[in-house]
Amino acid sequence: MFQTTNPSSASLKSPILPSLCLLNQESAHVTDPNLINDFDSIPAEIISKCLSDYSDWGDLAKLSCVQKSWSTLLHTASQSQGQFSQWELAQALMSGSNGLEPNPSQAFKYLVELSEAEKSVNDCNNTVGEDASNKYEIQILAMKKLAMCYFVGDGTEEDKNSGLMWLKKAAQECNDIDAAHELALIYEYGEHNVDCDVVAACEWFLIAAVNGHTGAMAEYAMCCELGCGREQSDEEALEWYVKAANSGHIEANFSVGEAFEEAKGVPQSDGEACMWYYKAAVMGDEDSKKALLRLSDIASIVVPGWSNQLGSILNA
After folding, report:
1. Model pTM score
2. HEC states along 143-201?
């Protein structure tokens, strides 16, 4: 089952250290006379709590330079909460946020580590629904970010083939429909120096559409309508426009109305066309407003009071 990822749910926050992180550190006592805190006398759990609540990645980076025994604090914090903490640190290093200087090459290493977690990748296909989305969200985000690093040469040498490989892994192995849609757009428009390939674009639009990507439904419908990357078919175009419209795609409603008005893949019906135009017009589609005005006599029959109901929308 394909899924989407939500970057907003993986927003940055303060790092968390395991409670006994400092307990076994060699020579945990602060010897610098300018530092008055004696860490030997403070329980490790309290130190961990303070660092978790009041420090960011930059604070930990500074502490790691105080003495040799703390040199791994940053890495330890990134490992303490698994993939989520590593993802946070990778983002901070990539953007130079949360008190850290930009370090794309180090961020890239964390992204590779997250993306190459073999067990997670192998299990992606066997976990469905909300559990899959929650469990593998970070890994999928890392794969797509890693792909972008390769596309633009951020933290590594530019390599479009590696970028495509990681997007395909996210789409095929972890069933991410956004990655499938992104691949389709890359092939359609020749982004990131990838050769335009309308057949490949059409295939990826179909993969994303079949698995629920609304935008891809409308894009694949257009491929069917224009015969772009596949055989032309008004009937299949209408089928996918209807699916996209029913999934909330505004412009697809207009396309369905247009199909009825022009008898493309369906018997001609201005009345049916007006109903679909009305749905799109209510949602703000400009072409549908114009179509309703053009067919106003018929619209008044099939959608009584349509002009009054739309009101200011028509005049906008």
Report:
1. 0.77
2. HHHHHHHHHHCCCCCCCHHHHHHHHHHHHHCCCEHHHHHHHHHHHHHCHHHCCCCHHHH
